[in-house]
Amino acid sequence: xxxxVNPTETEISEKYDYDLIxxxxxxxxxAASKRAxxxxxxxxxxxxxxxxxxxxxxxxxGTCVNVGCVPKKLMHQGALLRQxxxxxxxxxxxxxxxxxxxxxxxVEKVQDYIxxxxxxxxxxxxxxxxxxxxxxxxxxxxxxxxxxxxxGNVTFHTADKFIIAVGMRPNYPDIAGAKDYAIxxxxxxSLPYPPGKTVxxxxxxxxxxxxxxxxxxxxxxxxxxxxxxxxxxxQECAERVGEYMKAEGVEFMxxxxxxxxxxxxxxxxxxxxxxxxxxxxxxxxxIECNTVLFAIGRxxxxxxxxxxxxxxxVNSKTSKVIVxxxxxxxxxxxxxxxxxxxxxxxxxxxxxxxxxxxSQRLFGKGKVLMDYVNVxxxxxxxxxxxxxxxxxxxxxxxxxxDNIEVHHNLFQPLEWVIGQKAGVCYAKLVCKNDDNRVIGFxxxxxxAGEMTQGFALALRIGAKKEDFDxxxxxxxxxxxxFTVLDITKSSGKELVASGCGGGT
Length: 504
Ligand code: FAD
Ligand code: NA7
Description:
Layout: H1 9-15, E1 18-23, H2 27-38, E2 43-46, H3 62-67, H4 69-90, H5 103-127, E3 131-133, E4 135-141, E5 144-149, E6 154-164, E7 168-170, H6 178-181, E8 183-184, H7 185-188, E9 198-201, H8 205-216, E10 221-225, H9 235-247, E11 251-254, E12 256-265, E13 271-278, E14 284-289, E15 291-294, E16 298-300, E17 334-336, H10 348-363, E18 377-380, E19 384-389, H11 392-399, E20 404-411, E21 425-432, E22 438-445, H12 448-460, H13 465-470, E23 487-488
Helix pairs in contact: 2-10, 4-5, 4-8
């Protein structure tokens, strides 16, 4: 029998059109393709956006830049500015009695920025020598894909290796009128007319963020919550976020799920009626509104990739690709990163870092695997809830209730002491009793995202409660509350909101 000889890099390049084909030009796909090209690989990235049921579509860059983090944060800022206008008056500014907001102007600015980003991505792929093809990809075999462009032209392309980075798209419930009259986060950021009174269905972070900024921009918002708020997040913090949103004017209907949507009158916005049922009491509610926005989860875009037939294992329940710790699928030359992979966090920086490290391993001398532990994140409602590590519930489950202590307190940002609500901002450290290590960091405050990013480093390097205690605070800031968190949950002591971030 002839000895197995691995082909040289030149032989591979001659055998296939590309060293690497990346399917999906979103956060993960762009990062992986650029890094691979920088390491000398011949790379193509395919990206194609299927329009939403109401026809919304967008350019290169994937979810984050077009219909995710970026427009969300800009609309979050729009909502915060309303609060700042309110605060400005308290601080003596004369800014007019009633403020008005023009939705169309915000959408135009947001979309202009996104357009500039789409263009920038194309330029940067070209500069880095990555071939970009705007076509929808399906696998033919382990080394070949079929690509169909928007005119229906079909081409075939081969590669030695593949990275699947196709992300996810929003779900619609199977109820009458869902796709005819409702929208999702894929549509809201480019909606050409003001949404008006909006019913948000779902209670996870996308639902609360969209509900939060719409309320902040002055629209009436009702959220239909099937069970709990922010599943997967610390439930005490989730409820505090809910209380804040309620105080800001968002209506929550707990236990309700939608049954059908009908149109009362067409228009921009239309007049709609959504019928909902309370799962536990059986109560039926009919709500008239202008917009129904579903944020009831997202499904990985693997359905039309033909993965099973080429041997790539997919979880049939979630449609996600099953990969090992090196992001390799069940077919050894096919990898997957980002939202599409099973059991990992659905966040842009996670997709980016996993993509860069994977390319580094495939085409450079890299050995480092992506570390999915202690990844920080923030929910923008528009009050921010930042967290890193374990929720209190998860810590109890993993380490046992007796081995967990929670240090927490309320605090009042100094900038809020004249005229703003009290009892909103909250800080919590979840610690292990055996070694006092901080394994969960939670903060509800303005700019919590900025704080969480910094403190996440402490969790990564195994900081203990005494490290937080000996840290000298920056006064007067909100972050300094973490240097003086001296109320334990086990003490049952009442929380008292002190000023100046709790530092004095
Ligand atoms: P994506 O960015 O979704 O890219 C996948 C690309 O592949 C898409 O362009 C898709 O059209 C394309 N594609 C799919 N199938 C094919 C095919 N067969 N052929 C060719 N192309 C295909 N994350 C954060 O970190 N912070 C946030 O604040 C945040 N906010 C969010 C807010 C919202 C409303 C949403 C929806 C998401 C948010 N996320 C946030 C999540 C973040 O957007 C995703 O985690 C990230 O975009 C995932 O990147 P990805 O590369 O896996 O996929
Ligand atoms: P999630 O995190 O999957 O949450 C879905 C939410 O929608 C959650 O509150 C669900 O309630 C609720 N839900 C699910 N199905 C229904 C139906 N049929 N009716 C009413 N409510 C429902 O989804 P997101 O869209 O927020 O985000 C998904 C990910 O995409 C996210 O992690 C980002 O990183 C990218 P439940 O708690 O199950 O009762």
